[in-house]
Amino acid sequence: MPTPPAPDLSAVSTLLLDADSTLVATEEQAYAAAAGVRRQLLHRLAATRWDGDRLREHWRGRSFRRIVCDLAAEEGVRLGEAELADWVDREERCVTARLRGCLAPDPATGQALTRIAERRLLAAVGSTSSARMDACLAAAGLDELLPAERRFSGEDSLALAASKPDPSVHLHAVLRLGVRPEETLAVESTRCGVRAAVAAELTTIGNLVHVPESERPARRAALLGAGALRVVEDWQELASLLAEAPRPQERRSRGSGRVPTPRLSPGLPTGLAARGQAVAGIAAVSPAV
User: Fold this and answer.
1) For residue range 19-76, what is the model confidence (pLDDT) as tens digits?
2) Which of 7, 137, 259, 286 could join 229 via S-S bond, C-beta 3.0 to 4.6 A?
3) One Pfam family this chain carries (predicted)?
């Protein structure tokens, strides 16, 4: 597949970086750590239609809350709020403990992100909880580059928890950072992450840094098909792309950004539109920080 032309990044002042499996190599470890909880959940729901490949593909980029809700809905099982919260908490504890113990800094990633941060603002976005994001960034040595006030969790940062491909966490991050969508670049590694960023009207680049070599051709095609303008192999390639772009103009003062009504991708559940629009509506009355 020919490489698409480099997108115009000259206006980019801010990057929203997906945390799980993009900033940090969490996918394999998280999936393995949750194996026991996953088996118990499938047994509870009497779910027999979710084979390993289908479940793993659905897992990518989504929160465990979203996965539980999706499986329960397909099996026609109604879960109460207390039971749903219990499943989310069980997965959260076992996965966060595993990631805290196995992740380590990657010098190449740290150097590339430091290079990018010299000229642009970095923020982290993700579908998982703030506690997991904090643990992962600390273990990977990225917590200073991405301080707590620039981390946005679909599980904890919103009034109503939402998971990609819902664009709410991207919209919330744009609002809180006080930047304009047209000066914001999203970097994602999954199809649903790209769909979320595109729905928030953000320029989006895919990153294959933690995708196994054998899976990269298919993932590249999936990310481009979801709306990514370019797919890079790693953070160093992205840093080089940004270095080639002219230095962005001085950012407008905080609070001057426009948060758009999300342009939902085809096939995105209509229930997500209301949440995304609600976040966009908050922009008209809420000051940025």
Assistant:
1) 988 999 998 888 889 989 999 999 999 987 776 677 777 778 789 999 999 999 989 9
2) 7
3) Hydrolase
Domain ranges of the chain: 14-25+105-282, 27-102
Residue 98 DSSP one-character state: H
Burial of 14 (0-12, 13-18, 19+ CB in 10 A): buried
**DSSP letters along 113-182, please?**
HHHHHTTSEEEEEESS-HHHHHHHHHHTT-TTTS-GGGEEETTTTSSS---TTS-HHHHHHHHHHT--GG
pLDDT digits (tens, 9 = 90+) for 242-289: 998 876 654 444 443 343 444 433 433 333 344 444 444 333 333 333
- Please indicate, yes or no, whether the overall pTM of this predicted structure exceeds 0.85: no
Residue 273, phi then psi, degrees to nearest 5: -60, -45
Angle at 190 between CA 186 and CA 192, to 5 degrees: 85
Q: Mention the CATH class of domain 14-25+105-282.
A: alpha beta
Coil, helix or strand at residue 210: coil
Residue 5's SS3 state is coil
